[in-house]
From TrEMBL:
<keyword id="KW-0067">ATP-binding</keyword>
<keyword id="KW-0547">Nucleotide-binding</keyword>
<comment type="pathway">
    <text>Cofactor biosynthesis; coenzyme A biosynthesis; CoA from (R)-pantothenate: step 5/5.</text>
</comment>
<comment type="similarity">
    <text>Belongs to the CoaE family.</text>
</comment>
<keyword id="KW-0418">Kinase</keyword>
<keyword id="KW-0808">Transferase</keyword>
<dbReference type="InterPro" id="IPR001977">
    <property type="entry name" value="Depp_CoAkinase"/>
</dbReference>
<dbReference type="InterPro" id="IPR027417">
    <property type="entry name" value="P-loop_NTPase"/>
</dbReference>
<keyword id="KW-0963">Cytoplasm</keyword>
<feature type="binding site">
    <location>
        <begin position="13"/>
        <end position="18"/>
    </location>
    <ligand>
        <name>ATP</name>
    </ligand>
</feature>
<dbReference type="GO" id="GO:0004140">
    <property type="term" value="F:dephospho-CoA kinase activity"/>
</dbReference>
<comment type="function">
    <text>Catalyzes the phosphorylation of the 3'-hydroxyl group of dephosphocoenzyme A to form coenzyme A.</text>
</comment>
<protein>
    <recommendedName>
        <fullName>Dephospho-CoA kinase</fullName>
        <ecNumber>2.7.1.24</ecNumber>
    </recommendedName>
</protein>
<keyword id="KW-0173">Coenzyme A biosynthesis</keyword>
<dbReference type="Pfam" id="PF01121">
    <property type="entry name" value="CoaE"/>
</dbReference>
Length: 202
C-alpha cells in the first residue's frame, strides 16, 4: 500500500514516458492515465457497454473493440456528446488510477497524467512534478515522434495550459533539454527526496 502519490505531467513531447520509465527502473510503481483510459473502455467493461448503449453498435470495430477515431469524430464535433463522454469516463479513470496507485508496492507511486492541471486532478496527488522543455524542442520532438505537421503540434500545445502556468503550479521540475546523464541525475535526486517524503507521510 502506498499513501504517497506524485503526479507527473508536462506538455506534449516533453518526455513524460521517458522519465516515468526511469522511475520504474528504480522500482517505483507507475500508473499511466492513458493506459487506464484504455482499460475503462476495454471489451466487457462497463465503460464500453455504456458507450455502445449511447452511440449504438456502429461505434465498435469488427472485433468488438471501441472504434476510437469514430468516437473522437462524434465527440469533437458535438460539445454535448463530449460532455456526456467526459462525465462517464473521467470518474471511472480517476477511481481506477487512485486504486492502482494506492495498491502500489513501492514506498510512493507516480501518476502520469498529461492533463493533470487542465483537468484539475492535482487534488488527487501529494506532490506535482513537471517535465519541462522549451517550445522549439517540444515542437521538434513531437514532429519527429508522431510524424505530424508543425501546425498540428502548435494547435495541441496551444490547447494545453501555458508553460508558465504549468511551472507556476509545479512542486518540482525536471528540465529535459540535456543529455541522458543529466536526466538520470535529476531523477535520482528526486527519487531520494520522494522516499524521504513518503516515510514522513506514513
Amino acid at each position: 500500500m502506498s499513501d504517497y502519490i506524485v503526479g507527473l505531467t508536462g506538455g506534449i513531447g516533453s518526455g513524460k514516458s521517458t522519465v516515468a520509465n526511469q522511475f520504474a527502473e528504480l522500482g517505483v510503481t507507475i500508473v499511466d492515465a492513458d493506459i487506464v483510459a484504455r482499460e475503462v473502455v476495454a471489451p466487457g467493461s462497463e465503460g464500453l457497454q455504456q458507450i455502445v448503449q449511447h452511440f449504438g453498435t456502429t461505434i465498435l470495430n469488427t472485433d468488438d473493440t471501441l472504434n476510437r477515431s469514430l468516437l473522437r469524430e462524434q465527440v469533437f464535433s458535438d460539445p454535448k456528446q463530449r460532455e456526456w463522454l467526459n462525465q462517464l469516463l473521467h470518474p471511472m479513470i480517476r477511481q481506477r488510477m487512485l486504486a492502482q496507485a494506492k495498491a502500489a508496492t513501492s514506498p510512493y507511486a507516480i501518476l502520469v497524467v498529461p492533463l493533470l492541471f487542465e483537468n484539475r486532478l492535482e487534488c488527487l496527488v501529494n506532490h506535482t512534478l513537471v517535465i519541462d522543455i522549451g517550445r522549439d524542442t517540444q515542437i521538434r520532438r513531437t514532429i519527429d515522434r508522431d510524424h505530424v505537421s508543425k501546425t498540428q503540434v502548435i494547435n495541441i500545445i496551444d490547447s494545453q495550459i501555458s508553460r508558465e502556468q504549468r511551472l507556476a503550479k509545479a512542486n518540482d521540475v525536471i528540465t529535459n533539454e540535456g543529455d541522458v546523464e543529466s536526466l538520470k541525475s535529476q531523477i535520482l535526486a528526486l527519487h531520494n527526496k520522494y522516499l524521504k517524503q513518503s516515510e514522513k507521510a506514513q
